Amino acid sequence: MNPFGLALVLVPVWAYLVGTVIAAARFARRPIAPAAAQPAVSVLKPLHGVEPGLYENLRSFVDQDYPAMQTVFGVRNPADEALPAVRRLMQDWPDSDIALVVDSRAAGSNLKVANLENMLPAARHDVLVLADSDMRVGRDYLAAVAAPLQDPANGIVTCLYKGVPTGGIWSELGAMHINYAFLPSALVGAALGAGGGCFGATIALRRDVLDRIGGFVPLRDELADDHRIGTAVRDRGFAVVLSPYLVENRVTEPSLAALWRHELRWARTVRAMAPAGFAGSVLTHAVVIAAVAAGCSGMSLTACTFLGLTCALRWASALALARILGLRIGKLWLLPLRDALSFAVFAGSFCGRSVSWRDQLLRVGPDGRMSVDGDKLA
Known about the structure:
With 378 residues, this protein is an alpha/beta fold. It has helices at 3-29, 54-62, 83-92, 111-119, 141-146, 169-191, 207-212, 225-235, 256-273, 275-280, 286-296, 301-325, 335-348, and strands at 41-46, 69-75, 98-102, 127-130, 135-136, 154-158, 161-165, 203-206, 239-242, 247-251, 354-357, 360-364, 370-371. The protein has one domain (1-365): Spore Coat Polysaccharide Biosynthesis Protein SpsA, Chain A. The chain is built from 13 helices and 13 strands.
């Protein structure tokens, strides 16, 4: 490959890296402006099992600077290991409006959606906030995400998230994937108006909007339930608003196998939901592309120079993202390992349609719907 061909391959990659920093800076400048009126809110937290820091995660949603709120926790198993954390929270915050739903009914293969369906009758307020159990927020969170719903044109408010490891190298690598792969790509998509994201970190919506899309029923067999609910709301003519509030995702991956299964599920889900966009995401693997291009050029001086430039730009953009968005930089020396693992997951996503999720083996169909009789993981 001649120098012109190398540049032709690498310029889009370099442009993407620069674009992530620009998109992050634009996102960080957006103001968070709570509304003067603060309607009562019910926060729905579907739970399954225990994880490091679960009590603190749940407490952050209860301890809000908000005038009228209810928190609904739900499990499907009366012996679920998350229950002690919930009961301790109810004991520690006796004056808070907290409800606990234990109900094993499931009408579909997505057990989180089944949990939410079971919890919904216990929610007393018309503004609903759904959030995953591994998220942690500040006391101003609820006011920030509820405010845009005062505009009747807005159907959903959603949040991006940054990874915070809970300990160990696999947790660190999992958080780095969120911070330096997922988050910047989502910000670029949002800046270009092509993101269309709706994220399980936060989905805030009015009850009438949920009713307009048929409640949770259409999501019963959807693996990417967060993406599907966003699409359904847009199809009804409402806007999906990306809040400038960045929540924390507490990353607890205990092993390489757990990290691989988790990220492979993400990758195969995105591939099923948006195949063209997922194929185009190869541009996010800057260093691997530069290394392959250099190899195809016989490791010429020009190719090695371009590879070094790509590595330097990758590190510089990661440092800039960390400073702009308040991300961890202590283990940034792991970035080459993280990039290699990310590309392996990307490649592995094309080698099957089965995923492991919440102790289930599921097969993801071409339309994103799932069944429990999946084949073995590739």
